[in-house]
Design a protein that fits this description.
CATH architecture: 3-Layer(aba) Sandwich
Structural class: alpha/beta
Order of helices and strands: HEHEEHEHEEHEEEEEHHEEHH
Number of helices: 9
CATH superfamily: Peptidase S8/S53 domain
Radius of gyration: 20 Å
Bound molecules: calcium ion
CATH topology: Rossmann fold
CATH class: Alpha Beta
Strand order of the largest sheet: 3-4-2-5-7-8-9
Helix content: 25-40%
Shape: globular
Strand content: 5-15%
Length: 393
C-alpha cells in the first residue's frame, strides 16, 4: 500500500522543486490560520480564554502531583518568554547550568550533552540552525504552544522550529524530519505536529516508525483542505501507524466540522475545537486562530493529561492506549457522522477518567460503564452509519 503511495509521489515529481506559483505538494507547512484579533486586554484574558474555550468541555482539572510530561511542539517556534509559556518551557538538563570553566552551558558555544546541537537548552531552531533564542516570526507555533500549556498544566514544551515564511516546502519537510529525530533522541512523550502536506515521505515515515518503537505519541493535524482524507491523504496524519492520532476541527459549539477541515472515517480519529480559538501570540499578546492545527493542540493536551494521570499511579501508558482512551471516551455528535472514526468529538475529562488498561475490579467496572454509556449514545444518535462507516461515503 505504502509502496504504491510512494510510487505515485515520485511520479508526480516529489523530488523536484515546486514552481513558485504552485502549492508545493511535496512540502510541509504550518496549517493556514487567520489571526483575527491580535490584542485583547490582558485583564480579561483569563476569563475570555475560559469563556471561549470552556464550551468545548475541555477544562481539565489540574493535577497536584509532581509528574511531568514532555511535549515536542514542532512548529514555527514559540515565544518561550511569553508570560504564559515561560513556566512550561522544557529544559535540556545537559545544556543547563555551568560547565567546568564556570560558563553557562546554555551559551558557551559547546554541545555539552553531545547530541549534535550546540546550546540547545529549550529546543532547536532548524530553520536558522543557530543556537540562542528561538524566534516565532509567524505566530502559529506560539498559538499552538499556548493551547497545550493552558489545558495541560504539567506539560513541558520542547521548542522545535521547522518552518517560517522564508523557507520552501522541501526545506520544511527536511527540517520536520530532523525535528522529529530530535524529539525522539531527547525522549519527548508526545510530538504535536500541527502541519503537513499531501505527499508522503519515506524518510518521515521511517522516523515516525522509530517514534512508534520508542512509545512516542504523534498528534497530527488532519489538514485544512476540506477534503476526504481517505481519498486525498494528508501527511503525517495519514501514515498508517498505530501511534498517530489524527485530529480534525469543529466549531466553537462543537456541533459541526469546519468547512475547511479534512475528514475521514478511518484515518481521522477524533474532532476537537478549532474555530476562533483564543491563545497566546508572540510578545505577550493573545489572539484567535482557526484550523485543525488548534484542534490538534487540544488533543495533545488531553493526551498529556492522560500520561500524567498514569504516571501519578506509577504506570506508563502506550500511544495506542492513549488513542483508545481518547476515541472511546469521545462524544458522538450526529453532525460528525462520517467525519471521524466514530463521528465524535474529544471529551478531555472523560478521556482522563477512562482507563483502557484496567487492573482493578473498580477500574473494570468504570470501563464497562463507559462502554455502556458509549453504546447508549450510539443508539441515541439513531444513526446506523455510525456503525457502518461506509454508508456515509
Ligand atoms: Ca547539545
Ligand atoms: Ca552549551
Amino acid at each position: 500500500m505504502l509502496v504504491a503511495i510512494f510510487a505515485i509521489a515520485v511520479s508526480h515529481g516529489m523530488m523536484a522543486r515546486p514552481l513558485e506559483s504552485e502549492t508545493p505538494r511535496n512540502s510541509r507547512h504550518a496549517n493556514s490560520n487567520v489571526i483575527k484579533q491580535r490584542m485583547i486586554s490582558t485583564k480579561v484574558i483569563r476569563s475570555e480564554m475560559q469563556k471561549r474555550n470552556i464550551s468545548s468541555e475541555l477544562q481539565i482539572p489540574a493535577t497536584r502531583e509532581k509528574a511531568s510530561v514532555v511535549v515536542a511542539v514542532i512548529d514555527t517556534g514559540f515565544d518561550s518568554q511569553h508570560r504564559r509559556l515561560k513556566p512550561h518551557r522544557w529544559l535540556n538538563r545537559g545544556e543547563s547550568g555551568w560547565d567546568s570553566l564556570g560558563q553557562n552551558k546554555s551559551s558557551n558555544g559547546l554541545d555539552d550533552d553531545g547530541n549534535g546541537y550546540v546550546d540547545d537548552t529549550t529546543g532547536f531552531d532548524f530553520v536558522e540552525r543557530e543556537s540562542g533564542v528561538i524566534l516565532d516570526t509567524h505566530g502559529h507555533g506560539t498559538h499552538i504552544a499556548g493551547i497545550v500549556a493552558e489545558h495541560a498544566p504539567k506539560a513541558q514544551l520542547m521548542n522545535l522550529k521547522y518552518f517560517d515564511r522564508t523557507i520552501d516546502g522541501i526545506a520544511a519537510l527536511r527540517n520536520s524530519i530532523e525535528a522529529m529525530k530530535y524529539a525522539i533522541a531527547m525522549e519527548a512523550d508526545i510530538i504535536n505536529y500541527s502541519g503537513g502536506g499531501v505527499v508522503p515521505s519515506r524518510e518521515e515515515l521511517a522516523v515516525l516508525e522509530e517514534a512508534s518503537r520508542k512509545g512516542i505519541l504523534v498528534v497530527a493535524a488532519a489538514g485544512n483542505e476540506g477534503s476526504n482524507s481517505e481519498r486525498q491523504p494528508f501527511y503525517p496524519a495519514n501514515y498508517k501507524l498505530t501511534n498517530i492520532l489524527s485530529v480534525t476541527a469543529i466549531d466553537s459549539l462543537g456541533a459541526a466540522i469546519l468547512p475547511t477541515s479534512n475528514f475521514g472515517t478511518r484515518s481521522v480519529a477524533v474532532a476537537a475545537p478549532g474555530k476562533d480559538v483564543l491563545s497566546t501570540l508572540p510578545g505577550n499578546r493573545f489572539g484567535v486562530m482557526t484550523g485543525t492545527s488548534q484542534a490538534t493542540a487540544f488533543a495533545t493536551a488531553a493526551a498529556a493529561n492522560i500520561i500524567i494521570e498514569s504516571r501519578n499511579r506509577g504506570e506508563e501508558v502506550s500511544p495506542e492506549e492513549i488513542i483508545e482512551r481518547i476515541v472511546i471516551s469521545s462524544r458522538v455528535a450526529p453532525n460528525l457522522n462520517g467525519k471521524t472514526r466514530l463521528g465524535s468529538k474529544l471529551e478531555a475529562r472523560r478521556a482522563l477518567a477512562f482507563r483502557s488498561e484496567t487492573k482493578t475490579k473498580k477500574a473494570e467496572n468504570e470501563k464497562n460503564q463507559f462502554l455502556k454509556a458509549f453504546e447508549a449514545e450510539l443508539l441515541r444518535s439513531e444513526s446506523q452509519a455510525l456503525v457502518n462507516p461506509l454508508a456515509n461515503r
